[in-house]
Amino acid sequence: MAVYTDVTPEELEAFLSTYELGRLRAFKGIAEGVENSNYLLQTEAGSFILTLYEKRVNPADLPFFIGLMEHLATRGIDCPQPVRNREGVALGTLAGRPALIATFLIGTSVRRPSAAHCAALGAALAGLHKAGADFTTQARVNALSVAGWRPLFEQAGARADTVAPGLAALIADELAVLEPNWPKGLPTGVIHADLFPDNVFFTDGTLSGLIDFYFACNDLLAYDVAICLNAWCFEPDGAYNLTKGRALLAGYQAERPLDEAEIAALPLLARGASLRFLLTRLVDWLNVPSGALVRPHDPLEYLRKLRFHRAAQSPRDYGVG
Ligand SMILES: Nc1ncnc2c1ncn2[C@@H]1O[C@H](COP(=O)(O)OP(=O)(O)O)[C@@H](O)[C@H]1O
Ligand SMILES: N[C@@H](CCOP(=O)(O)O)C(=O)O
């Protein structure tokens, strides 16, 4: 359960009294997620999600996330909408943390995505990229792109080999390859940057909503595709599922064709994406805050994916080109 910050009913009732949401009926910490503290609220006005922003979220970025979710909704993307209080302000402070109430999205995430789910995800990702194209009032640099990886390694490197022998050397080798070769000049725009299966809702088999925009930023669009290939197209035994990869990429390209340079860069982007999640998971694995209710994600899942990418020869190994 990701609850780092406890909220008392009294604190929550006082916070809610500044909104037009009626009285609090019930609330509980949410069992999924690792980044922020999330609570499901039931008020007289319905169900809502309360998020208290934790460690990785820079409060200065919150207006970007809020503005983006509002913008995407105007472009037809089904995503949580920030709820504003009586003074028209979305962002507040609760239990000492920046806090936001957002609308509750109906639907369930899939644990074992099928090729059809991957195709739908690919189309939704392209739709998100197109909808974000005219979100130009604010911008956010990706703090977890290639320039952010070495600082993560410096936090975790000394203890990396306690998680897997040889891991520190392997990460150092990867940085030595990826830092000087990271693609430049590819199409950029707003990316989600964490569109894992747990952040995508389906209703009756149809993709019905996207959540968790708190890594969203301006970066290479194809890097978002690479993140999704990692998150959606590997099997639990570590094998890349080419059928799912093809489906995801075809779904994406039906909405937004990748250009030649993006396709050529895909193997390197996928390799970088796997290193990014290996590193954040490693840091989290080694630094679980005492008293937090959270189950950290397994960094070694991304070590296995990284090994696949190191051996991949061409975009065809991913299902395109
Ligand atoms: N707007 C929402 N509607 C419905 N459920 C939500 C919503 N936001 C979050 N959740 C639930 O809370 C869980 C954790 O949210 P998430 O944003 O992924 O957390 P984190 O910020 O820790 O990554 C999700 O997996 C989902 O079950
Ligand atoms: N998706 C990331 C971490 C964030 O996960 P979330 O469940 O809180 O959305 C990972 O898997 O490492």
UniProtKB/TrEMBL annotation:
EC number(s) recorded for this UniProt protein: 2.7.1.39
Any one of the GO BP annotations: threonine biosynthetic process
Enzyme type, top EC level: transferase
Domain (Aminoglycoside phosphotransferase) ranges: 28-258
UniProt entry keywords in alphabetical sequence: Amino-acid biosynthesis, ATP-binding, Kinase, Nucleotide-binding, Threonine biosynthesis, Transferase
Pathway listed: Amino-acid biosynthesis; L-threonine biosynthesis; L-threonine from L-aspartate: step 4/5
GO MF terms held by the record: ATP binding; homoserine kinase activity
Catalytic activity of the protein: L-homoserine + ATP = O-phospho-L-homoserine + ADP + H(+)
One Pfam assignment: APH
InterPro entries: Aminoglycoside_PTrfase (IPR002575), Homoserine_kinase_II (IPR005280), Kinase-like_dom_sf (IPR011009), Pseudomonas-type_ThrB (IPR050249)
Gene3D superfamilies per the UniProt record, alphabetical: 3.90.1200.10, Phosphorylase Kinase, domain 1 (3.30.200.20)
Family matches, as NCBIfam families: PRK05231.1 (NF003558), thrB_alt (TIGR00938)
Family of this protein: Belongs to the pseudomonas-type ThrB family.
Official protein name in the record: Homoserine kinase
Species of provenance: Ancylobacter tetraedralis
